[in-house]
Amino acid sequence: MKKLIFTLFGLGLGFSALAQSDLTLYNFNAIPQVHHTNPAYPQQTKWYIGLPALSGFSTHYHNSGFSPADIFEKGTDINQNLETLSNNLDERSQLNLNNRIELLGVGFKTGKGFVTLGALQQIDFKMDLPYQLFQILFSGRRSITNLDLNTFDLEVMNRTDLYLGYQHKFLNEQLTLGVKAKYVFVQTHAYIDRMNLSLRNDGNYNVRAVSDILVRTSGPSAFESFDDEEILDIAMPDNRGLIFDFGAHYKINDKFDVSASFLDLGSITYNSYNRDYVSEGEYEFEGIEFDLSEDDFSDASSAAADSLEEAFNFQELDGNTYSRSLMNRAFVSFNYNLSPEHSFGALFHTRIWNGEMYNDYSVNYVGRVSRTFQFTAAYSMINGTMHNIGAGFDLKLGAFQLYLMTDNALAADYAVVQTTNLRFGINFTFYGRRQKGKDAQEAEVEKQKETQTEESASLMYNF
After folding, report:
1. According to the model, what pLDDT value does residue 196 have?
2. Are 213 and 278 in contact (CB under 8 A)?
3. Is the predicted pLDDT of residue 412 greater than 80, yes or no?
4. What count of other Cβ atoms lies within 10 Å of the Cβ of residue 287?
5. Closest by alpha carbon to 139, among 100, 213, 89, 102?
6. CA distance 94 to 130
7. Cβ neighbours for 5, distance < 8 A, ≥ 6 positions apart
8. For residues 178 and 181, what is the distance between their CA atoms, to the nearest angstrom?
9. Assessment of whether the complete model's pTM goes beyond 0.85
């Protein structure tokens, strides 16, 4: 049981300082990595090469339930804070952590198409905050009456994506369609397959727990040792699947364009180092007693693990092969282009996990000062959390392109932050030869006008 707890929470919390920014990235095609949000979003570059492990590093932290200050505010009683916090959580409270590193990225234009290929490594940790369990731990046993815990979900994944993408322009380059195929290896995976737990108070502070719980895991444990020849099997295990991203971008006219994408469609089959953790039966639950104001967090965590292990008597079993879909994501965007240098956009983003939709909304501005410097700013509502001010820029110094962006620039006040993320990287980029005296996008607009004029003249001549 203790092994299970530290596997799930240790893997996730170990990356709590790391994050991923996609809302600010989506409409910012100044950087090639925009194809990770929509494989059809038109590229500005002719070709690019990402510096290995430096072209794309992103981190994401989101907690819709509480901020660090709600627990650790100076001059307050941490135990009282936890009790207040537990009473304010509900079934929509969620914790998300993500870390992504692009190991290699390459893209190049070919005719009316653009090809992307590369590899990236990412870790995802998703958890519904178990508000009922918080009440058990921090509100006292007097609150445990007729409690049912059957909506708690948790999933953690460490994966490697090998991807190949292609986009192509149609209808006089007004419509762009794109697809990306990803061959995914999952090194570590764990999720709650079944969570049925009820607690009943008989009125004399005697609590009985009735459980039917199944936690499925795949991948080697941190407590195991391996031979050198097994390293390749761990890095590229028999936990794999073919995943697809689809996207579309349509330029209505010089002023308006719309786009949409659907990401991570497919499932993974898990065969390597599978283990199940099962708890079935009825148990006497005596609660968990510790004082966080006196003991350090590791002692409190160990005490909680020991108490839970004794109460629920989890059994570790060899697991069978299983399949599970990835968390699907979708973007829909509408943009108004005031001029080639200034555009405004509205963006909707949703994540679908275990049948639930978690929605984000964003409005953004993109300023294209020159090829050397472009920037973006955004305001977002992320899964119910407000006041997320995003910003980002790219700076091109010769062949080198440096970019930096975040969905919440206010995250410097880390004590009260509920959402924070960061994305940065370095690319080699080539935009192609610039037309003298004209910006590249202005030249594109001029080219389209000339084409329309020629078509009109041809129609008149034929008539």
Report:
1. 86
2. yes
3. no
4. 13
5. 89
6. 9
7. 301, 304, 305, 308
8. 10
9. no
